[in-house]
Amino acid sequence: MRGLRALASRLLGLVPSENREREMADEIESHLQMHVDDNVRAGMTPDLARRHALLKLGGVESTKEAWRDRSTIPVLEHFLQDARYAIRQLRQHAGFTGTAILTLALGTGASVAIFAFVDATLLKPLPYQDASRLVGVFETVALFPQSNLSYPDYLDWKRMNATMSSLEVFGQNGYRLTTGSGAVPATGARVSDGFFRTLGVTPVLGRDFETGEDLLAAPRTTILSYGAWQARYGGNPDVLGQTVILNGDPTVVVGVLPQDFHFAPVEPAEFWTTLHPSGDCDLRRSCHGLFGVGRLKDGITVDAAQSDVKSLAKRLEAQYPDSNRDQGGAVFPLSDVIVGTVRPTFMALLGGAGLLMVIASVNVVGLLLVRSESRKREVAVRSAMGASSARLVAQFVTEGVVLSLGGSLLGLVAAHWAMRLLTGLIPANLLASMPFLQGLTLNPRVLAFAAVIALVSAVLFAVTPALRLSSPVIRENLAEGSRGSAGTIWRRLGSKLVVLELAMAMVLLVCAGLLGKSLYRLLQVDLGLQPDRLVTLRIVAPASDYGKDEQAITLVREIESRALGLPGVQSVGIVSNGLPLDGNGNTTWIRVLGRPWHGEHNECPERDVSPGYFTAIGAKLLRGRYFTEAEDARKPRVAIINHAMARQYFPDEEPLGKQLSYLSDPPVPMEIVGVVEDIREGPLDAAIPPALYIPFNQSAGTFLGVVVRTSQAGPTLLPTLADTVRAINRNIVITGTQTMSDRINSSPSAYLHRSSAWLVGAFAAVALILGVIGLYGVIAYSVGQRTREIGVRIALGAQRRSVYELVLGEAGRLIALGTVLGLACSVAAATLMRGLLFGVRSWDVPTLAMVALVLATSALVASYLPARRAASIDPVNALRTE
Amino acid sequence: VGDKTDVWQGTLALMVLKTIETLGPLHGYGIARRIEQTSGNRLSLNYGTLYPALLKLEQEGSISSEWGLSENNRKAKFYKLTRAGRRQLDRETRNWEETTAILARFVAPSGDPA
Fold it and tell me: For residue A740, what are the contacts with CB-CB under 8 A and spacing of at least 6?
């Protein structure tokens, strides 16, 4: 207690105070006075009395020193003194300080911001109990390595597997939520009863689903996400027990999920309901609509579970050859399933930010070296005045610490804003599907990362100039104008640093170039449709009103005719099973009639389209014709195939007139009446599989995509279009409105490519600038050092041209070295990130050549300035000043 | 002086506190003289060493200081005991007595071995 009090008062003593100093002097003076008085009274002469008093005291200055040491904490006092001096020094050289701190802040800001993303996606554990024991469980087919499970398969796997303590299923599900003013769309998922127990998640309010609650006979219940509870029910606990109408079914709210819960594969999801398997799909073994999530038994590896599931799939295949032929099984760690697709991108970005950080640090080290050179005399003087070398080093260390502290703090601020900016740039639909990115903050892990960066840079900045303080050099430096070995040492070290910097800048430039080219290629891919002025609408019609085919067909005709009545609308089409770029899912199995067939599953995406659909999206008809309005259930069945199917199934034949069939028994023939150029139903960067198009009039549905081509700007039409559809029936919900261009640009593959291209591009631009500045610094310094030599050369008759050659030659060597080294590293780096490239090789020669050219040119321009200065040296002045 | 004072350094705080308790508020010079006198001039202080000790006691809250006038009308800083200081003095006195009692058993001429 007393110790603490004393410590506090000594800490306060660190603040310099004139008062305290004066009081101390007064007290000592009064002490001496009293002693002198006594001595005089004892008969001494005043002089002797004072000398005696001083002797007895032990000296005024040493008393004061002992008193001061006690009044503060000497080590800290020295540090603060150094820090004050450092800050004064740094303020006097605002240009140097500003450059160093900004450079550092840039590097720190970029790395910390990117690290925060990496932390949120790859480091932060998923919000489940023992998340590393959770696995995603899939069936596999040729078309999809991670395909859905069918409900009967799931039940068998759940019962028969020996490696998982529990296995549950889930599926994304959109809902029509009935409200007072008609139906509104709501997001959700349906899960098996033990889903949350398997994840180890307990509702914060109410209860979990009970065993058996997912069966058809059980009453319908739902658990709300925390967000839905807040947004739709104002966080009112009375929501428990309330009945909501989801897709027309009364459903009782039984619980609310924790705030930090998320489950990316189905997010955004507000209403979590149980399976209630029923209808055409759920009970059919060949209809795959669910994904599995399991918890591994203790001591079981993912591989063991994988082989377990594979053998189960084999057994089912033998048992049910019709439905389970070629249906394999696969198990992946759940974290791979959730963040697997973005991991390489984030790792590449972190690598880029790391390189930038290194370049920034190297640049600051270069600056410090130049500065320590110009402080030779200051150091020499301080050393001659008696500063111990420890104290001199302490001074440099302090300056390094202050610089790195300043840079890091500014960098943290930059990182904070960069994180907000980057999150803001992610399209809302993508952000919703990456819930782990929400609530991105400078959390302790990120701050620790920043602290490590700050520490490393502080050590680097402290050690670099301190290394220069070898004592023989100091003494030598007192002699003005002496050029010891130090200048040469720095020139060599500085040159090496610059070569390194240029090489790393080159790596970043090449990566940026390749990513940029990938993005360009990606956005140039043939879509098989015309995206300009094309808008899309996604609607869900209530099955109660439109469940029968004729009802749905009438609705579609109504939508088409009303939409065509809107100003500017040129054509309208309807598709069920998915809009372009939705994915290659919603597949069917087909066979070509009249050919031998041995039960194989020829899987292809199927889309059911209205007669006007292909015209509306601007597809290209290769052969035959589109569907007609008259082709409905009463007419013979017809089909249109894409080019890929024509190539694969009819390589040397005329596909028109051939008959396809689903794998039904007996087969129902569908005659091929047309072939369209491949339409991109799936991601931009995936190959287009064979696809089948069926007339909507022969295969109606209630989940519809509406495409409208307009002569006006797309975005202005969307609200009107949505209102028009809702006017038909207010129980129809609109679940999405987007222009086709937005769909393309905000599709996950486009977004990932674009964001990595832009970010790495920004890193590369900064790296280029820093690298060129670094080169300029080295060359300028070298010219400064050689002023006398160049002066002598000129005095002896050297041509200006040869001076240029001298300087630019030195720069050229560095640039050449940096470029060659950079080329080698670039190819290596690009090979590492080849997974992120699309339509471009990692050794793309035009990119490499272009980057080398840009780098060399800007570097040469930067060296031209000091070269010109060298060439204009006046020999008389140069020799006189030395 | 050397060896002899080292022992006394550690107990300087106790001596200061005891002196102030006995004489009431007192300035640094007075405390120094009094300590020397009490020791029968067997203890010779470097007066300068007293001031860091006073500062330490003040930082710990055992004494407080105030400017005033000395008996010869000189301006001087007077130190007086605080309540915490009084408690500390009691505690340290007890400690000291115990320490000396223990030490006395060791250094006393051993009549009969225990």
Answer: A529, A531, A532, A534, A535, A536, A580, A617, A707, A714
Strand, coil or helix: A119? helix
Residue A149, strand partner residues: A290
Query: Torsion over CA of A261, A264, A268 and A274, rounded to 10 degrees?
Result: -70
- ipTM > 0.95 (yes/no): no
Q: In this predicted model, what pLDDT tens digit does every residue of A8-57 receive, in sequence order?
A: 888 877 777 788 888 888 999 999 999 999 899 988 899 999 998 888 88
**Contact call for residues A736 and A329 (beta carbons, < 8 A):** no
Contact (Cβ atoms closer than 8 angstroms) between residue B77 and residue A30: yes
Radius of gyration of chain B, Cα coordinates, nearest whole angstrom: 16
CA of B59 vs chain A CAs: smallest distance (Å) = 5
How many angstroms separate the CA atoms of A522 and B95, rounded? 85
**DSSP code per residue over A519-574:** HHHHHTS--SS--TTEEEEEEE--HHHH-SHHHHHHHHHHHHHHHHTSTTEEEEEE
pTM: 0.75
**Mean pLDDT (chain A, rounded):** 87
Residue A701 and residue A610 in contact, taking contact as beta carbons nearer than 8 Å: no
Nearest to A6 among B27, B46, B56 (CB): B56
Cα–Cα distance, A549 to A814 (Å, whole number): 74
Confidence of residue B3 (pLDDT cuts 50, 70, 90): very low
**Residue B5: pLDDT band by 50, 70, 90 thresholds?**
very low
Task: Fill in the DSSP letter of residue A147.
Answer: B
Contacts of B27 in chain A (CB under 8 A): 30-31, 34
Bond from prior residue into A667 cis (ω within 30 degrees of 0): no
pLDDT digits (tens, 9 = 90+) for A431-444: 888 888 877 888 89
In chain B, alpha helices (H): 2-10, 12-23, 28-38, 50-59, 83-107
**B interface residues, A as partner, C-beta within 8 Å:** 27-30, 33, 46-49, 51-52, 55-56, 59-62, 70, 72, 74-77, 84, 88
Q: What tokens were used for A387?
A: 């500063």
pLDDT per residue as tens digits for the range A139-194: 998 888 888 999 999 999 999 999 999 999 999 888 889 888 888 889 999 999 99
Q: CA–CA separation, B95 vs B86, rounded Å?
A: 14
Nearest to A34 among B49, B61, B74 (CB): B74
d(CA A205, CA A805): 78
Hey, which residues 8-37 in chain A have their CB within 8 Å of chain B?
Answer: 9-10, 23, 26-28, 30-31, 33-35, 37
CB–CB of A759/A349 below 8 Å? yes
Can you tell me the distance from the alpha carbon of A695 to that of A678, in angstroms, rounded to the nearest whole number?
Answer: 17
